[in-house]
UniProtKB/TrEMBL annotation, chain A:
<dbReference type="Pfam" id="PF00528">
    <property type="entry name" value="BPD_transp_1"/>
</dbReference>
<dbReference type="InterPro" id="IPR035906">
    <property type="entry name" value="MetI-like_sf"/>
</dbReference>
<feature type="domain" description="ABC transmembrane type-1">
    <location>
        <begin position="109"/>
        <end position="299"/>
    </location>
</feature>
<keyword id="KW-1133">Transmembrane helix</keyword>
<dbReference type="GO" id="GO:0055085">
    <property type="term" value="P:transmembrane transport"/>
</dbReference>
<keyword id="KW-1003">Cell membrane</keyword>
<dbReference type="InterPro" id="IPR000515">
    <property type="entry name" value="MetI-like"/>
</dbReference>
TrEMBL record, chain C:
<keyword id="KW-1133">Transmembrane helix</keyword>
<feature type="domain" description="ABC transmembrane type-1">
    <location>
        <begin position="94"/>
        <end position="272"/>
    </location>
</feature>
<feature type="transmembrane region" description="Helical">
    <location>
        <begin position="246"/>
        <end position="268"/>
    </location>
</feature>
<feature type="transmembrane region" description="Helical">
    <location>
        <begin position="32"/>
        <end position="48"/>
    </location>
</feature>
<keyword id="KW-0813">Transport</keyword>
<dbReference type="GO" id="GO:0005886">
    <property type="term" value="C:plasma membrane"/>
</dbReference>
<protein>
    <submittedName>
        <fullName>NitT/TauT family transport system permease protein</fullName>
    </submittedName>
</protein>
From TrEMBL, chains D, E:
<comment type="similarity">
    <text>Belongs to the ABC transporter superfamily.</text>
</comment>
<dbReference type="InterPro" id="IPR050166">
    <property type="entry name" value="ABC_transporter_ATP-bind"/>
</dbReference>
<dbReference type="InterPro" id="IPR017871">
    <property type="entry name" value="ABC_transporter-like_CS"/>
</dbReference>
<keyword id="KW-0547">Nucleotide-binding</keyword>
<dbReference type="GO" id="GO:0005524">
    <property type="term" value="F:ATP binding"/>
</dbReference>
<keyword id="KW-0067">ATP-binding</keyword>
<dbReference type="GO" id="GO:0016887">
    <property type="term" value="F:ATP hydrolysis activity"/>
</dbReference>
């Protein structure tokens, strides 16, 4: 916990910078608003203001800087505005007993979480099976590994609509499964790479040791490779779940527009409500933080019980 | 009977008729079990119907005809929207007062099938879209909001009378600062939200019968919505899964939509169709469609449904 | 159906050949190491072609690779224009700016253990976030052209790169640092002669992660507004106008570009960290 | 040492590794007989093939020429009959298993019953002076204790032959002395045949009944020294003239074989 | 050995590490004088503070009590004057530099001219028998050669004091013997003062003019043995009674300090 203090200080610095940045980012909006309300600003027309730098505008119109901190549609909202919006759409909704209403970020977070978890399960399963195959069969290693890397260079966003259409054709209803597939597509790779490393972690002498016991391949796998790979597995699971969340949100951006945090971001963009975007972003960040922390905890407990030194 | 309807866009009053029909039990009365699938920025209804994900789709005619030319035989079976709601909204202070003034400006345009009317309009005006010049405009693929206009990244943006235009107004802009060009007024309007199905399905009498009932119920929904715009807007709001739509906005949208649907009983007016085709064929160097489409519409359904 | 049967037979044959090659004593030679994955890729394409033809899949849903190839050849002009816009301007410039900025930041904060301890957990956290979500915000800040795409890429690659570099800079073993102290070496000397070289494997790890992020970022950002060219633009509008073959051609370009990009970084890594056990293999 | 049937017998043993830089002859024309109950030390410069020879006996490497028999069988058959325990240089305990479960590992694999496993673990832990440490994890033990645990693991399934490859290489001299004493006592008590690789001349002389001196590239046996020292060996024996004489002979043998090019 | 002004002088040296488990007293009340040209070996059980003592001399650790002077200065001043070369247990060569450039490293840092650098590299490579290997990378050399390269690196800038922390710990006995001989020759030729940590009794006795025996926890000096052996020492000297007697005394000293608890 010796990091607590530095982290707090850095966070404080980030918040301060954020606050400072709000002024120049929002000055144009604030001046437009003031002008419409009848105030005199310099220069007078929006078109003329286009030609002037924000710093100039701030110097010429010091009275209107403050207004930039309370715009309805700010280019950059203040942390407090974001916090309020987040509060309103989560706890605020929950307090009114509408936690699962469609206007609540808790509901959308839940939708995203579900798809993420399914994608994570699927991706982890594929990653682990792939790793086992790669470690056990050289053909797999030689043919699969390069393609695993190439697969990650394919822009998954482009495939998203097609995945939906194809899965609809196969008879899969709804968006949950296509989203999970996209999420799994991003998630499997770190798991695969980590597990290949992990399953290959046993040293030659450990493998030889089992040979002197005349152990079967299965025994070698269960008693040596699997336990030796666990620390690697957990590390890559943490990367994997973060990737799964990215996948879900990417999957929700172009294909969703229905529910989920990605859809909220999209809709927020569509209706020009930046606060909604920011709130959804923060909610996604919190979700990612919680998921990774949970896995981290699981890792600590498991490895401790297994006797790995901390 | 189950029917899956793929919308062109997200749940909003633009599709009020269908939601009303579902909510008020009009579909049920016809013995239909209708699932309404909202669309989104990257959902191509044509692709969905090609993949068997929907029985009937809401689409704009330019996109449908383009798909038809690409080998996906879509047929218009009903046209609830009589008029086009598309327009170009510009800042007055940019000096634009008539379409010819657009040259040498930056314009935001929607793509994804919605660009066709724009392109043919420009080619009619003789304005190229390759970039800013004496005789050309710079085209941006506009996102889904009106920020490009508000932040003056574009001088004009595409808006719908029922949606984006009001977002601009809601942002505090006075209508006096704006100048709008309705496609309808310049004779370049193409048919918007119509109902389309796959041609091959129309050979199946059972499917035709299903569509007849569907169109009948849907039009009933539309007419109800026209008469009760506020309630219709609330129904739409209840069906919005994103939870992002606001009551005020939807009510106003419903009012505007009603203007577009009024005057249509669902039957496609062949004259409108001819005009759309003509506009599209005139798409300049890169026309949307290259030849007169055949069999792209039918009155078979509406004739039965509206009798 | 014939096409499908042929594809399946081809698949079995190719797999058997690959298996035999992998078991043979030439498996470690260079040609075999290249041939096996290539044959595997070809098999995938043949299988795809076979399925599309055999099952008569509509081209607006999934075009056959042969058709995609045709489109690719026909529309090289468009593809090149888009490639320049998205990869060269958007992704590459963002990648360079982001990675260099992260690298310099890492060196700057590394001098203060306080800052490092404060920034590292935050950097780790941010690196795990779905940063693509900020694309709409950055597009509205930086406009429609490639600048906003580059900005998205900068933000996406910054944190993974930062975290890796900071980690790398801490990676020298205490003995090596003590050695430099016995020489009474200054900060800069220690940095240049010990810590930077020692950090290189980590730096390249960050650079490699960043390559795939850069492409995704640039393409996703184009979904939220772009000029009327660019790979993301073409892909999103291509789906709308049912030119799915063009979409796949763009995907192929993206995969190709990504692979080459990754390959270049991996190649540079081999050159720079030739001394690292993982490279000596 | 009254048997005449050697437990391990190598004849004209050759082993060539195919490497990227061409073939490496690790063993050349090696011939050796090891009797039941022998304590044989292998000593020789780095890379001379000591480890390789042990691995051939354990069927972890296959000779490219000549023959080896273990108890009259091929090494592979002997391996399948679990004829030996192998102790590696590093203790090589699995960090995720307690000491007791580490020792159980071979027993589980060989299918001993639960009760038998517990009983044997108990017994060998006592044998190596580790009773009470069964529930500890390897990293909670010192290096010397870990090394003893790994010996216990090799003893647990009662193999007749113990192959030990520099088991005490990583330990400091005092601890090493202590383990040497214990290993000698254990050898006396159990009468096992032990093959022991070391780099330390005093260690080899102190422990062995037979010292095999090897020369590098290609690995060859240059000298086999039968030790005249009694079975009973206090540590002080290392200061006696007999001891020093053998040590001297070993050193000379080593020096002769050491083409100085390291 | 005629000087009276000690090169290194420690008085009442205390060093306590603050660790998570409470304070660890690594050195307690250590007093030692080292004269110019001495070859001092430090021997003692693991963890007794040998490394710590060397690090204190090199100003890599700061004592919590008492004083040390190096050439009459504080260790820190001596460090800034580049008074010593430090050779670590592992060779610690930078893998991204060739052997020659590794040896150049301190010269670059200390600002020697290009020509001077080349000349010195040439010279020390010869000194440690590595001429011709300058352009190789560390991993292309055997362990013994790497260790010699690291000694060359410490010699390159002509420090008067050489601090060596178990430099040959990882090598086999023959290579070690060889390096010992070379080190002795080098010491004689250059007249440097050398502090040498080892775990091997024969090594300590063979090399040193002075053997410092330490006891663990808290690290204390239990015995300082002045060696009566002549400067000229063939390897055979290790079989002489004088040698054995000193070795015996060292072993007794070690044994006494070794609380047997491993
Ligand atoms: N798997 C292998 N492939 C190629 N060469 C090998 C292999 N194993 C050992 N060698 C080579 O065979 C020779 C003998 O190696 P071995 O490990 O038996 O030596 P050693 O006497 O045990 O040495 P050390 O004392 O360093 O352990 C060495 O030259 C080594 O490089
Ligand atoms: N940086 C440190 N922090 C805390 N304790 C330390 C530190 N360095 C050494 N110690 C402790 O100080 C004691 C002396 O350590 P030192 O490394 O000097 O022993 P040593 O004699 O060199 O042992 P070895 O023979 O194993 O190298 C040990 O108990 C060790 O655990
Ligand atoms: Mg060996
Ligand atoms: Mg030490």
């Amino acid at each position: 916990m010796r990091n607590t203090w530095p982290v707090l200080v850095v966070l404080g610095a980030i918040a301060a910078l954020w606050y400072l940045a709000v002024a120049p980012m929002n000055i144009r909006g604030a001046l437009d608003q003031a002008e419409r309300a009848g105030a005199v600003v310099a220069p007078e027309t929006p078109k003329a203001r286009q030609e002037v730098s924000v710093w100039r505008l701030m110097i010429d119109n010091p009275d209107h800087i403050a207004a930039g901190y309370s715009l309805d549609r700010p280019r950059l909202p203040t942390p407090v505005q974001v916090g309020e919006e987040l509060w309103k759409s989560t706890v605020g909704m929950a307090l009114r007993g509408r936690a699962m209403s469609k206007r609540s970020l808790i509901y959308h977070g839940w939708v995203t979480l579900q798809a993420t978890l399914w994608g994570f399960l699927l991706g982890t399963a594929v990653g682990i099976l792939g790793a086992v195959a790669i470690v056990h069969w050289r053909v797999m290693d030689m043919s699969l590994m390069p393609w695993a890397i190439i697969s990650q260079t394919v822009p998954i966003v482009a495939l998203a609509p097609m995945i939906i259409v194809v899965s609809a054709q196969i008879g899969i209803e709804g968006r949950a499964i296509p989203k999970a597939i996209i999420s799994a597509y991003l998630c499997y790779f770190p798991v695969l790479v980590g597990m290949v490393k992990g399953l290959r972690a046993p040293t030659v002498s450990q493998i030889d040791l089992l040979k002197t016991y005349n152990a079967s391949a299965l025994q070698g796998f269960l008693k040596l490779r699997v336990p030796a790979s666990l620390p690697y597995l957990f590390t890559s699971l943490k990367v994997g779940i973060a990737a799964a969340l990215v996948g879900t949100i990417v999957g929700e951006l172009p294909t969703g527009a229905i529910s989920g945090l990605g859809a909220r971001i999209l809709i927020g963009d569509q209706f020009g409500t930046p606060l909604a975007i920011w709130a959804a972003l923060v909610a996604a960040a919190i979700l990612a933080g919680v998921l990774v922390t949970l896995l981290d905890l699981l890792q600590k407990i498991t490895l401790k019980r297994m006797g790995f030194r901390q | 009977d189950p029917v899956k309807l793929q919308l062109k866009w997200v749940t909003q009053a633009q599709f009020a008729g269908y939601y009303v029909a579902a909510d008020k039990g009009f579909y049920e009365e016809e013995g239909l079990d209708v699932t309404i699938l909202p669309g989104g920025p990257d959902i191509a209804p044509e692709q969905v119907i090609a993949g068997g994900g929907a029985d009937v789709i809401v689409d704009w005619m330019p996109a449908a005809l383009a798909a038809r030319e690409r080998g996906l035989a879509l047929v218009n079976i009903a046209q609830p929207f009589k008029r086009s709601g598309m327009m170009l909204t510009c800042w007055k202070d940019t000096g634009i007062s008539k379409p010819e003034d657009l040259a040498n400006h930056t314009l935001g345009v929607w793509f994804f099938g919605n660009e066709y009317p724009f392109l043919s309009w420009m080619s009619q005006l003789g304005i190229s879209t390759d970039g800013k010049s004496e005789n050309g405009v710079e085209v941006l693929k506009q996102g889904f909001n009106v920020d490009p206009l508000l932040q003056r990244q574009a001088d004009c943006i595409s808006t719908m009378t029922y949606n984006e235009y009001w977002q601009v107004i809601d942002a505090g802009v006075s209508p006096d600062d704006l100048i709008t060009f309705k496609y309808e007024d310049y004779g370049v309007a193409t048919l918007e939200d119509g109902l389309y199905v796959l041609e091959e399905n129309l050979e199946d009498p059972a499917f035709v019968d299903k569509m007849v009932r569907f169109v009948r119920a849907s039009m009933k929904g539309w007419k109800w919505a026209e008469e009760n715009p506020d309630e219709a807007a609330m129904i739409v709001l209840d069906n919005d899964q994103t939870g992002a739509q606001t009551e005020k906005h939807q009510k106003r949208m419903m009012g505007e939509i009603a203007k577009l649907t009024s005057g249509s009983d669902g039957t496609l007016d062949p004259a409108d169709y001819e005009r759309t085709v003509r506009i599209l064929l005139a798409g300049g160097s890169d026309p949307v469609i290259t030849k007169e489409p055949q069999g792209a519409w039918t009155h078979a359904i509406t004739d039965k449904a509206l009798k | 159906m014939n096409a499908l049967v042929f594809a399946l037979v081809f698949w079995l044959g190719a797999w058997a050949l690959n298996a035999a090659l992998a078991r043979s004593r030439w498996h470690a030679t260079r040609p075999v190491r290249i041939f096996v994955p290539v044959l595997f890729g070809v098999t995938l394409l043949v299988l795809w072609e076979g399925i599309v033809r055999g099952l008569d899949v509509s081209p607006v849903i999934l075009p056959a690779p042969s058709r995609v190839a045709q489109t690719f050849v026909v529309s090289t002009d468009t593809l090149w224009l888009d490639f320049r816009q998205t990869v060269l301007k958007g992704a590459l410039s963002g990648y360079l700016i982001g990675c260099i900025a992260a690298f310099l930041t890492a060196i700057a904060i590394d001098r203060s253990s306080f800052l490092t301890r404060g920034l590292l957990p935050i950097g780790n956290f941010v690196a795990a976030l779905p940063i693509v979500g900020i694309a709409p915000i950055l597009v509205s800040w930086f406009g429609f052209d490639w600048h906003s795409k580059a900005a998205v890429v900068v933000v996406m690659v910054f944190f993974p790169m930062l975290v890796n570099t900071v980690q790398g800079l801490r990676e020298t073993d205490p003995m090596q640092r003590d050695l430099m102290r016995t020489y009474a070496a200054g900060y800069l000397q220690t940095l240049v002669k010990l810590r930077l070289p020692a950090a290189m494997p980590f730096v390249f790890n960050g650079l490699k992660i960043a390559t795939t992020l850069a492409l995704i970022g640039a393409i996703v950002a184009e979904y939220f507004g772009s000029p009327i060219y660019g790979m993301g633009f073409r892909i999103s509008t291509g789906v709308g106008s049912l030119s799915i073959d063009l979409v796949w051609a763009e995907i192929a370009v993206a995969a190709l570009a990504g692979t080459v990009f990754y390959g270049l970084v991996a190649w540079a890594e081999r050159l720079v960290t030739f001394w690292h056990p993982s490279q000596r293999g | 040492m009254t048997e005449t049937n050697p437990v391990i017998s190598a004849r004209n043993l050759d082993l060539v590794f195919q490497t990227n830089d061409g073939p490496v002859q690790a063993l050349k024309d090696v011939a050796l007989d090891i009797e039941k109950g022998d304590f044989v030390s292998f000593i020789g410069p780095s890379g001379c093939g000591k480890t390789t020879f042990l691995r051939v006996i354990a069927a972890l490497e296959h000779p490219t020429g000549g023959t080896v028999t273990v108890n009259g069988m091929t090494p592979d058959e002997a391996r399948r009959q679990r004829a030996y325990g192998y102790v590696f240089q590093a203790a090589g305990l699995f960090p995720w298993r307690t000491i007791a479960r580490n020792i159980k590992l071979p027993l589980e694999i060989m299918g001993f019953s639960r009760a038998e496993q517990d009983e044997r673990v108990e017994r060998v832990l006592k044998l190596v002076d580790l009773d009470g440490f069964g529930e500890k994890y390897p990293w909670q033990l010192s290096g010397g204790m870990q090394q003893r645990a790994s010996i216990a693991r090799a003893l647990a399934f009662d193999a007749d032959i113990l192959l030990m490859d520099e088991p005490f290489g990583a330990l400091d001299e005092i601890v090493r002395d202590h383990l040497n004493e214990q290993l000698l006592a254990l050898w006396e008590r159990t009468g096992k045949t032990i093959c022991f690789v070391t780099h330390s001349i005093p260690e080899a002389v102190y422990l062995s009944t037979k010292i095999v001196v090897m020369s590098p590239r290609p690995g060859r046996i240059t000298d086999v020294i039968e030790s005249p020292l009694p079975k009973e060996r206090p540590l002080d024996i290392r200061d006696t003239p007999e001891f020093l004489e053998i040590a001297h002979r070993v050193r000379e043998g080593l020096r002769a074989g050491h083409a100085y090019d390291d």
